Amino acid sequence: MTTYSNYLTIRHRGKGIPYGGNGEIREDGDANYGFKYVKGNETALRQIPELARDPALLQLALAINASTTGLFTVGCVSGPVDDDRGHRDSGYMEFSINSRSAIANAQNYFPIFFHFDRFLHEAEFSAPTSFNWELEGATFLERDQSAGFTCSITINTHYSPTREEATHLWAESLEALGYFLQSVPPAHEDFIYPQ
Fold this sequence. Notes:
This protein is α+β, with helices and mostly antiparallel strands. Helix content is 28%, strand content 34%.
């Protein structure tokens, strides 16, 4: 029996990248630190506040931003949820294909989603986790107005009886996602940002 879910949706709005943020507190209690291009720069990645407080999210960002992938991160956040039902973790990682022509067509994200789904099935992944891939329009303002789509993956673990178990499930789920995404090669050489 499958204990995880993996699905793809489309959000009908758009945004400009880079987006600003200097740590102002939002309505949800978290802060926005803005977009930073950090591909291949582990030192810069480790200085991002959202990643500094979540080792599993940091490892996922390192995997996506490896110099060998055709992807780069756009944004992220995560946090624990502890209430009367138990303990779980929730967050997202947004990324883009690093190709002007590839991001112009939303269909180019589907093979990544599809092969991740096959990977979970073939690996007999069993962590009770939900992966929601969401495509959204985006324009890279400082990169010749390159327009197309980015993809956010929202990850929600199911409730666990202890905080330790919830943290373990979160790490296991992000590790599987990172393992897969680090294998996505560059699609084309018309890079949005230098590799």
